[in-house]
Design goal:
The chain is α+β, with helices and mostly antiparallel strands and 185 residues long. The chain contains six helices and nine strands, in the order βββααβαβββαααββ. A hairpin with a 6-residue loop joins strand 8 (166-171) and strand 9 (178-183). Bound molecules: zinc ion (ZN) (2 copies). One zinc ion (ZN) is lined by residues 30, 32-33, 35, 58, 60-61.
Length: 185
C-alpha cells in the first residue's frame, strides 16, 4: 500500500495501522478538520456530546489533540495506570488511538510511564509476532485468573486475536519489558 503522507507518530501506540484502529479510506472525511486525509480512526471514542465519532476522525487530529478538544473526546482509558503523571494520562486518553477489548480496556504502565500498545494476540500471534510476550501473558493468567499447570496451558492455547479470550500486548518504553493482560466477556 502506498502512503504519500507519513502518519503522525504516536508514542504509546506505535503502529495503529497494524493494530487495526487506523484504516485506509479514500473517501471518509474527518469531522474535526473537514479534510479527507486517506486514513481514518476506527477505534473506540468516548464523548459525552457525540456518539458517532468512530470512523469520523483522522489520526492527525488525534495526534495534535484537536479532535479531543473539539468533541470532548477520549480514545483510551488511562485511569487504570498507577504511578503515572497526569501529563502521560492525558496524552494516552486524548492524543493516542485506543483499541477494543472485550470488557474493560486497560492501558498498562511500567517504570512510571505508560507502556506502548503493540496489539491484540491469540496463541498464534504470541508464537509468530510476540514470542517475547509469552512470559507476561503466563504471568497474567497466574495472577489475574489464578491458573496453573495444565489449566494454564489450555487457556493459553485457546487465546485468540478475534474471539475471546484475547491477550493485549504492551511493552515498556523504558526497560523494554513486555506486559500483557487477558480479557474475555
Ligand atoms: Zn482531521
Ligand atoms: Zn519498565
Amino acid at each position: 500500500m502506498e502512503q504519500t503522507v507519513a502518519l503522525p507518530t504516536f508514542k504509546y501506540h506505535p503502529d495503529p495501522v497494524a493494530t487495526g484502529v487506523v484504516v485506509r479510506d479514500e473517501d471518509a472525511p474527518c469531522l474535526s478538520c473537514n479534510r479527507i486525509r486517506g486514513y481514518i480512526y476506527d477505534g473506540p471514542v468516548t464523548s459525552e456530546k457525540f456518539h458517532y465519532l468512530t470512523h469520523c476522525l483522522c489520526p492527525w487530529c488525534i495526534a495534535d489533540g484537536s479532535a479531543a478538544r473539539r468533541f470532548g473526546a477520549e480514545f483510551a482509558d488511562s485511569g487504570t495506570m498507577a504511578g503515572v503523571s497526569q501529563e502521560v494520562r492525558d496524552e494516552i486518553a486524548q492524543r493516542t488511538p485506543g483499541f477494543y477489548s472485550w470488557q474493560e480496556t486497560r492501558w498498562l504502565s511500567c517504570c512510571r510511564d505508560g507502556a506502548e500498545f503493540l496489539g491484540a494476540a491469540g496463541s498464534k500471534e504470541l508464537k509468530t509476532q510476540f514470542p517475547e510476550a509469552v512470559k507476561a501473558v503466563r504471568q497474567c493468567l497466574q495472577t489475574d485468573f489464578d491458573l496453573s499447570g495444565a489449566d494454564l496451558k489450555e487457556f493459553m492455547d485457546a487465546l485468540s486475536k478475534d474471539e475471546q479470550p484475547t491477550a493485549y500486548i504492551f511493552r515498556c518504553r523504558k526497560c523494554l519489558e513486555y506486559l500483557a493482560y487477558v480479557d474475555e466477556t
